[in-house]
Amino acid sequence: MKHQGNALPPYVHLDNGELWLTEDDRDNLKISYRIKEVIFAEPSDYQHVMILDSYDFGRMLVLDGVVQTTSIDGHIYNEMITHVPLQLHPEAKQALIIGGGDCGAAREAAKYDRLETIEMVEIDKKVVHACKEHLPAVSGNLSDPRVKFIYDDGVAFVQGKEGVYNVIMIDSSDPVGPAEALFSSEFYANVHRALKEDGLMVCQSQSPIFHLDILKRTYRNIRELFPHVLVYTAVVPTYPGGMWSFTIGSKRPLDFPAQTTIPNDTKYVNDAVFRQCFSLPEFLRSALEE
After folding, report:
1. Number of structural domains, the chain?
2. What digits encode the pLDDT tens for the residues 72-83?
3. Where is the PABS domain positioned along the sequence (predicted)?
């Protein structure tokens, strides 16, 4: 076992000689992962950053004790937050990713030759460096020249921007700590202003099972700004409840392409998944209509 910096935080612990990570950020649910090795562990200016090698999910990015992405299922989330909006905006040339420090969303966006610029604004440089070096299954050690890394607060970055981007992808962690402001109505208003007249945004909007209140609030905030709003879902095993949601807000009507142009090297998204992901279970459809 190797790691850098100070002693490991309490959520990484030994149990009968075995190393475990226990997510304990929820009052009524704890999830534990058996760990092979601590690859990287250091505090940043914003949070504690770890790359752990687990038995079932391979290497994983862990921020303040909460799993963010893994080698086994990280592609699901990253493909869904990029390919779905980019299929709905086939003329997009300027893209912005807010968050996304694991580089997975930028890696997927870079598969589109039509994108001329891909700006990625991540507040924590240490997350990007750790993932590029130690989590290549997710980051792909991204080095596309169109991807511009900007180490800044995403909330502050979009303030004052007007009509710059075709697509904005908000790849935030849970709405606590540094990411909390990424779920505010003021932030979404700035995102709306930063989009061109044909622009659309997408954000991850949490678990429909455990965070339905956050999802409904996000949906309402976006609907107040954008005339066209859709929610879609995917199954991401390491996220609480498995089912995860994404919310799209668009300034123009959303036209589904007769034929998708999804890259042929995806692992999760294909034409059928793209078309069915907007079919919501009844409880969720009803909740959004309230």
Report:
1. 2
2. 999 999 999 999
3. 18-251
